[in-house]
């Protein structure tokens, strides 16, 4: 299983400070998808073309099963992740963003400002996450079951049969 993780940050892409959210994605998803997960890491500036080009590359050329972004989902003028993601999606899955906002709102009253989106491109599931490592962890905990099932569907597998086999 190939997982692309893209950190969207002007400062991290310029080397001003280290990426902490991308490694957090790997840590959590390694536990979710197991030892068979291979990660392809990228850091790009918060620019529409850079983000959308990287998402297309990971979906179309690298054939990632799952692509997770972190950062750029807020409301500042430089936050372009949702707009860039929408340019590459074939099907939008609004439940991902809704679930993250609702669950996070109980802990952080400003979580409703997040504009994270998710959807599919070909056989890739693409999910936007917030930029803070703690928010990444909280959101992935909420989304993990849907991510597993979504990836299985896109791969043409029966996720319910897999669960039954794992329980035996």
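^ Assign residues to that structure.
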């Amino acid at each position: 299983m190939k997982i692309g993780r893209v950190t969207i940050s002007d400062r991290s892409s310029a080397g001003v400070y280290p990426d902490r959210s991308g490694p957090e994605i790997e840590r959590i998803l390694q536990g979710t998808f197991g030892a068979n997960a291979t990660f392809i890491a990228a850091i790009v500036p918060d620019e529409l073309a850079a983000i959308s080009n990287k998402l297309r590359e990971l979906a179309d050329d690298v054939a990632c099963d799952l692509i997770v972004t972190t950062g750029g989902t807020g409301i500042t003028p430089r936050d372009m992740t949702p707009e860039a993601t929408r340019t590459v999606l074939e099907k939008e899955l609004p439940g991902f963003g809704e679930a993250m906002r609702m669950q996070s709102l109980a802990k952080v009253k400003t979580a409703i400002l997040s504009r994270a989106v998710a959807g599919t491109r070909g056989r890739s599931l693409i999910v936007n996450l917030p930029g803070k490592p703690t928010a990444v962890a909280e959101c992935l905990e909420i989304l993990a079951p849907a991510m597993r099932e979504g990836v299985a569907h896109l791969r043409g597998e029966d996720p319910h049969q897999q669960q039954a086999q794992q329980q035996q």
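The longest helix spans residues 133-154.
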